[in-house]
């Protein structure tokens, strides 16, 4: 008896229920990963590099016994299953719209071979935390209370020794031709893979968790930087939760971030249309700019050339590293939708292309929080002032100076007094004027029903 273990967003061997399920089903297990051309085309070079690095470490942990192939999964998975005579195919369940459609196609193509889903990337799988009337939550705070009441399982006791692994080299034919793991030679600031995820998390627990509740909004200070590892499943949040002493303020604050991650996954699960459309349809009426001038401003925003230091620092960090601090994500997003009056979808797409941790649920609903059009969103009348926000959350200017060398030697790094050094651009818009314009456009929408605001939106970062 042979089982096929199909890795996706779970590139690890510890705390992996699907591995235990595969091993309990069969004597031998073949591990595989399918490079889907559709996902490759939509992923930026750094996200592909992180994926490739994670796959290489997983292959090394399995002593080379990982089959990596390329093609539509609905073709590749049934082909491999047929080749090895698999009695079952095992996966961690995917709850995003793309993943659900893909798995439906694979399940249909497998015919009599079952596609067995065990576990998920979340502490509590989407669809399980519901209101008393059986409807999904639309506001985070009551969701969080019910989510904590629901609780979560302890880590699954899996590791490399949990299965007897088949060597892909021993397959009798090559119906699913192995391919090289992608390696674009992109320099990364964050090591990938399960071992790196574990080391990084342990270091953060020792050095950053205690002050997390105070430091989490400071881009110049240490954040956990666990979002990419959670995105690719090189660590499971259950494993992380074991190290959280929930009597401590820092651990409580971090738990709320893990809760936000589960909340946004649940929102996307219940309202899949919200991936690219306003969750609150009232906001479909908002006037946005899309012409040639809008495109020019968009390009300046992407390049970090807006003339607003905290915005430009964030965009340059993103361009150079594939990462951006969560507080700065909010500020740059607010600037795009309320100072430049551009569609939030433009910014969301750019973030997904650039971010190593680009996650559909967290990214899209974070953008809608800033635009005011999502569940539990920022009030439509909140327009962040990039100058005062920069002064508040980067008071010493260390973050701005790191990413904007033109301002490295300027005392007034947030340019509150208006004096600008040579080489740094003038503001591309007048914030006060654009704030008034944003309020004019938004006033016709008004407050939305069945919602509220927690004053923040986050994902572990």
From TrEMBL:
InterPro entries: Crypto/Photolyase_FAD-like_sf, Crypto/Photolyase_N_sf, Cryptochr/Photolyase_FAD-bd, Cryptochrome/DNA_photolyase_1, DNA_photolyase_1_CS_C, DNA_photolyase_N, Rossmann-like_a/b/a_fold. PROSITE patterns: DNA_PHOTOLYASES_1_1 (PS00394), DNA_PHOTOLYASES_1_2 (PS00691), PHR_CRY_ALPHA_BETA (PS51645). Residues 1-123 form the Photolyase/cryptochrome alpha/beta domain. The keyword Metal-binding does not apply. GO terms for molecular function: deoxyribodipyrimidine photo-lyase activity; DNA binding; FAD binding. Its cofactor is FAD. FAD binds at residues 212, 223-227, 254, 257-264, 357-359. Binds 1 FAD per subunit. One of its GO terms (biological process) is nucleobase-containing compound metabolic process. Keywords: Chromophore, FAD, Flavoprotein, Lyase. Belongs to the DNA photolyase family. This is Deoxyribodipyrimidine photolyase. It comes from Mycolicibacter sinensis (strain JDM601).
């Amino acid at each position: 008896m042979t089982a096929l273990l199909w890795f996706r967003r779970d590139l690890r061997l510890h705390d992996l229920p699907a591995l235990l399920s595969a091993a309990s089903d069969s004597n031998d297990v073949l591990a595989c990963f399918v490079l889907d051309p559709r996902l490759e085309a939509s992923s930026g070079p750094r996200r592909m590099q992180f994926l490739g690095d994670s796959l290489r470490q997983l292959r090394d942990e399995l002593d080379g016994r990982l089959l990596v192939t390329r093609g539509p999964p609905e073709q590749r998975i049934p082909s491999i299953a047929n080749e090895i005579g698999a009695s079952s195919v095992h996966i961690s369940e995917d709850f995003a719209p793309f993943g659900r459609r893909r798995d439906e196609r694979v399940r249909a193509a497998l015919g009599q071979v079952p596609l067995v889903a065990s576990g998920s990337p979340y502490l509590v799988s989407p669809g399980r935390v519901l209101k008393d009337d059986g409807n999904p939550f639309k506001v985070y705070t009551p969701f969080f209370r019910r989510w904590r009441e629901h609780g979560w399982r302890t880590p699954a006791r899996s590791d490399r020794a949990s299965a007897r692994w088949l060597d892909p080299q021993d397959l009798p034919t090559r119906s699913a031709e192995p391919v090289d793991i992608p390696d674009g030679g992109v320099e990364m600031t964050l090591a990938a893979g399960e071992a790196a995820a574990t080391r990084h998390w342990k270091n953060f627990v020792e050095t950053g968790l205690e002050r997390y509740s105070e430091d989490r909004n400071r881009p110049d200070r240490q954040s956990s930087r666990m979002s990419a590892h959670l995105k690719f499943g090189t660590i499971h949040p259950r494993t992380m939760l074991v190290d959280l002493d929930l009597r401590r303020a820092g651990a409580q604050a971090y738990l709320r971030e893990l809760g936000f991650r589960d909340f946004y996954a649940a929102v996307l699960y219940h309202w899949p249309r919200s991936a690219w459309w306003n969750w609150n349809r009232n906001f479909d009426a908002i006037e946005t700019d899309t012409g040639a001038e809008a495109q020019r401003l968009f390009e300046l925003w992407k390049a970090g050339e807006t003339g607003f230091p905290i915005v430009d620092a964030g965009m340059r960090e993103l361009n150079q590293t594939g990462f951006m601090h969560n507080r700065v994500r909010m500020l740059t997003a607010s600037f795009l939708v309320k100072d430049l009056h551009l569609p939030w979808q433009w910014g969301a797409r750019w973030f997904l292309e650039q971010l190593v941790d680009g996650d559909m649920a967290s990214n899209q609903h974070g953008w809608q929080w800033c635009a005011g059009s999502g569940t539990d969103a920022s009030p439509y009348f909140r327009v962040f002032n990039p100058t005062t926000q920069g002064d508040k959350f980067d008071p010493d200017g260390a973050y701005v100076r790191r990413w904007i060398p033109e301002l490295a030697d300027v005392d007034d790094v947030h340019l509150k007094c208006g004096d600008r050094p040579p080489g740094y651009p003038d503001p591309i818009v007048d914030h006060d004027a654009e704030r008034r314009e944003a309020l004019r456009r938004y006033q016709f929408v008004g407050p939305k029903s069945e919602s509220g605001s927690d004053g923040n939106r986050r994902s572990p970062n």
